[in-house]
Amino acid sequence: MSLITMSQKELNRLEAIQNIRDQRLSVVQAAELLGLSRSQVHRLLQAYDREGPAGLVSKKRGQPSNRRHSDEFRNIVLDLVREHYHDFGPTLAREKLIELHQISVGKETLRQWMTDAGLWTSRRERRQRIYQPRGRRDCFGELVQIDGSHHWWFENRGPKCALLVYIDDATGKLLHLRFAMSENTFDYLQATKDYLAQWGKPIAFYSDKHGVFRTSHASSKDRTSGLTQFGRALYEVNIDIICANTPQAKGRVERANRTLQDRLVKALRLKNISTIEDANVFLPEFMEYYNAQFSKVPARSDNLHRALNVEPDRLQEILCWKEKRYVTAQLAVSYERKRLILDESEVTRALPGKYVETREFANGRLEVLWNGVPLPFRIFDKDKRVSHTAVTENKRLCDVLAWVKEQQEANLPVPKIKSNSEKGGYKRRGRTPGRRSFLDDPDYIARKQKEYLQLEESK
User: Fold this and answer.
1) Residues 394, 399, 400, 401: is their CA dihedral positive or negative?
2) 318: burial class by Cβ within 10 Å (0-12, 13-18, 19+)?
3) Would you say the pTM of this structure is higher than 0.85?
4) Cβ contacts of residue 115 below 8 Å, gap of 6+?
């Protein structure tokens, strides 16, 4: 047998046996070196003398293992996997076979069986999906990719935040950047307002499927009913928004995000900028540097940005949060755990049972309108504090988190939840848990002592 087919263990034995025959090792020394008994070394010497190096090769090589599972057992296991666990990995499939079928089989054995049967493909063998390359658009302003990148932009000098990126597909030119605490509707509306004021209206925005851009409750009857607030605002100014199906489809902005996470972070460090406000002031300077380095010449020189043709006040009315709200018989409108009480007038007396429009702006200003006419109102806050269990809209998530952080830093006591009996005014027996006794109140004791001394003096 050729030496090439021998294992390393067998090669070590061959070397030791040859050294014994050449009288460079004794049998005892070889036994200690190989970790064998002297009897086993003598048997190896006899096999070597009888068959040469082939005598040291294991006779079990190429033969089935004595612990090998039968073909019938293998077929039973694979049938169960095909029927119940066809999309399970070997590890999870083995756990379910033991748990539900009382069949124990080794994980690697099952992996090999599933691989041979075509039920499992290792990660190394899985081919990555191939995406067809998409060329740049021909004209500047034809397609603008937008995305938000969450990152530690200020490293350890400031909070983790999001960078809203607007980049032209044809040129790779950064058109607008804005730092915000998160990807939320109000910051996107404000960034879009600044973008439109500088560049005008592009043909379309290209985004991912973030909740700011896309809703899963679209209507086939009314195009605007299925839009998000951001999508509704773009529809009113005649800008289309297209949602990419995969991150690779909007690779232009994804690659720009990686570059920004490297170069912009270092630029902020050199400028020692650690706040969102200062960073937003610095961004135009950085954009000029970035565009000089990485922007391309478009295939055609046409600029497809259109004039805005919208008055500033009208644009502000468009780029806000609009909703329809029901008016109750008490001239009240519910809005985010608040009651908006409309002032009584000839107009509002006819509104119960109808819907008015509410508008909320990025600065927190709130308006209630009927047929485009603002209605005066006062706010009755049903809950003076933000509830931890309240359903929070994405547009207010940052405010809620900021409030929670303030409460935790202030280490305020946990508010006590009263029982129904306490709400009704019934007295409980004994001391209420968590409530101080009057004997623990020093002012109460001093007041009672003073009353006692006055009573003694009057006697």
Assistant:
1) positive
2) middle
3) no
4) 121, 122
